[in-house]
Amino acid sequence: MKTLQCLKYAFYVIFHPFDGFWDLKHEKRGNLAAANIILVMLMLTLVLQRQLTAFIFNNNRVEELNLLPICGGVLLVVLLWCISNWSLTSLMDGEGTFKEIYITTCYSLVPLILIYLPLIPFSHILTAEDSHFYVFFMGLASVWTGFLMICGTMVLHQYSLSKTIVTTICILLGMCIIVFIGLLCFSLIQQMAAFVDTIYKELYLRIG
């Protein structure tokens, strides 16, 4: 029941972001379970969108479905945002914990679900000439979500608008840096594994 109430509260948050995020943090109107459900619902929404959107607006090969890139991509972006957010705001007198950042981020994703889902059947009604409607609502979902994430960062860490904008830019740069370091580490591990494998084969051939 508590989780259901927290899910319902997401509708209040997306229309009243400043009061909603304040209560989310100080009144504990959201919880981790509700945040996880929202994240899973977004993954499911993107899977349905990929498979069921009309071919006019869908460039994917629907007969080839791989859940890992879709679900993994969503999870990776959310975790990167949360890690970068927590790392930077910890150094910039931010007041939010990692758990609160994660919950706030997931609640900010609700507009993507609310708009993307209706667009799936709507895409079968629209013609190519009406594609601007489809593009508009897709853009609206992204802008709305971005606005909520900025509001959530501002309220959660008690920042001014200017500091929030600077922090958001730094968070995005931090995400890029984390990805770069991760790819670099992965490349180094691959090279080390190849080096060890080469040495092993050399020793095996000489001893054998």
Short recap of the structure:
The chain is mostly helical and 208 residues long. The chain has helices at residues 2-15, 17-26, 32-52, 67-91, 98-108, 110-122, 131-157, 161-207.
Description of the structure:
It is a single chain. By secondary structure, the protein is mainly α. The protein has one domain (2-207). Helix content is 81%, strand content 0%. It contains eight helices and no strands. The chain has helices spanning 2-15, 17-26, 32-52, 67-91, 98-108, 110-122, 131-157, 161-207. It is globular.
Percent strand: under 5%
- Uncertain segments are none
SS field, number of helical segments? 8
Q: What's the helical proportion of residues?
A: over 70%
Write down the oligomeric state.
single chain
Radius of gyration: 21 Å
The geometry reads as globular
> For the terminal residues, how far apart are their CA atoms?
67 Å
Q: What's the helix-strand series? A: HHHHHHHH
Q: How many beta-strand segments?
A: 0
Question: What would you call the structural class?
Answer: mainly alpha
Specify the biggest β-sheet: none
Averaging pLDDT over every residue, what do you get? 90
How many domains would you count in the coordinates? 1
